[in-house]
Amino acid sequence: MIPAYIMSAILGWRLYQLNTEDTPKKWGLRIAGYALTIIVLLIGWVLPMALPVFSLPEPRGPYSVGTSSIYVQTEQEEEITADPNDKRELLYKIWYPGDVDTKSIEHEPYVDTGSRAGFATKYGLPPTLLNYLDKVQTYVYPDIPVKETSFPVLIFSHGYGSKATGYYALLTELASQGYIIINMNHTYESLGVTLPDGRVHYFDYAYQQTIGADAMEVVGPIIDAFKNDLPYEERHPIVREAAKNYFEGRIQDRWANDMVTTLNLLEKWNTEGKFKHKLDLTRIGVFGHSVGGGAAGNVTLKDGRIKAAANLDGIQWGDKIDRNYSVPFLYVSADWPADHEDINAHIYKKKSTDYFYECTLLQSGHPNFMDIPFMIPIPSVAGTGAINPYLGMEIVTKLLTSFFDQHLKGDNSMSIQAVGEQYDLLKMLVHQGDSVRSPLDSMETTARSK
């Protein structure tokens, strides 16, 4: 914003000069000068408030956090592009517990150039406007040594059309607690991915329009069913039909296949390279946000290597509505308004033969699981809730850590119920082993506190 401040000073000085020359010819210039000064001052005031150099939460875990990238050219056909010869390309960002004193090491810049450019395009901004992100301090350090032990593995799937790596607060905290996280970047369906050779693949808006052409035709009956206040049992077959045909189900299938590809690569990564003998492949979890949360649930039904899974405010389309999980599952919802169509009340009618945790982060919005509330601290603009963004992220990361600690590490030192009892803004229901119990009949576990 320095140019804006310099321009303001120049304009102010010029207006002062014009005011000392009291001639009729100067009045037009004075009026134009005043108007231009107000515009420049507004830009200099509004932009730093809307897009500040923000502070990310400092991780609480015992480990420093490193990051590394792995590029994979698969043999799978790329169905999104028009070229039939294209093969699916995946770039992974790995977040891991480090073993180094980071005081003298430069932290990683916030978000790669491809994601920045994709974000700018999505909101009609010039990409250079996001150069200020270079000044955001992250708490991760590229390519530092991995701690000399093995860790449970978590695969993370981002939201549709979002920055795949726009979850620094969430992923940094979990990695600091002793997890190696495979950050998916679902090519052409994230805002952008910068490949090692410099190529950038952006979100494919044309493909989105094509696959979503029948969206309202499919979900219209659901909207009408909720709008007309049909009873749950009458609504259920309507939701079931749409759940199996909605286009996001095909996205989640594709992303689940990406994650199965990733699971198949873990054995190789664990025998060579940077992560040799660092991946505990007997303890693999998966989680995601929004469409990525639905995809995490989808792959949990597909692959028995996954031992625990979590969905952060995503609808899981497809055939989950007729099936139950066989592993512990955590579902965390934003605090949607009362008139919001609660589709997951039907999707998760069948829960799990193991534990199923059903939580709501009160006073939150859909983006509160991302870095968005830090990056854009105006709730009405960001679509976030009234919850303090740092408190909201603290609750979510503690909840996820306790869930995976309990069900992957066997560590019950901080149970999920204990996290629920710690915060007034976390509402929790715990279901155990009854996959056919309706939401209204579920066992309620007290989960309210300060």
From TrEMBL:
Which molecular function terms from Gene Ontology are attached? hydrolase activity
User: Which source organism does the UniProt entry give?
Assistant: Algivirga pacifica
Q: What is this protein called?
A: Alpha/beta fold hydrolase
The source's domain of life comes to Bacteria
Say yes or no: keyword Hydrolase present.
Answer: yes
Record's Pfam families? Answer: PAF-AH_p_II
Segments spanning the bilayer are: 31-54
InterPro entries the record matches: AB_hydrolase_fold
The UniProt keywords, alphabetically, are:
Hydrolase, Lipid degradation, Lipid metabolism, Membrane, Transmembrane, Transmembrane helix
Keyword Iron-sulfur listed: no
